[in-house]
Please model this.
Amino acid sequence: MSYQIPLRDIQFILHELLRVPVMLEDCGQPEFDAETIDQVLTAAGQFASEVIAPLNGPGDEHGCSMPSPGVVQTPPGFKKAYDEFTKNGWAGLACSPEFGGRAFRRSWPMRSMKSSAARTWHGRRIPACRMPRT
Model:
């Protein structure tokens, strides 16, 4: 089963219901206009569909394991997907430009695309991936 982001629904909520581009312009961030937001949403949706969603099968089949204390082994493909996620700048999208980010505001559509594309990638269905903090 392939994943397709509900792009039009997200655009409706951000642009028409919440009027996020207008709000950002009023807050002094006119660079985040509707076109820019749509480009990011489209790219995030493509990443979710092509990279994250295919991890559902391996995540369910293999799960995570802890072969030794402090070492977590993830299912096949997870490391490669995370490496691509960080290499392409998704991890720093909301970070300050002074630290290499884009200062793009955190929003539920970005998080929901990733988590709905592959719940296993976020550790919600693999208990071993939710290690307690010490």
Notes: The mean pLDDT is 80. Residues 7-121 form one domain. The helical segments are 7-17, 20-26, 34-52, 56-62, 78-87, 108-117. The two ends are 38 Å apart (CA to CA).
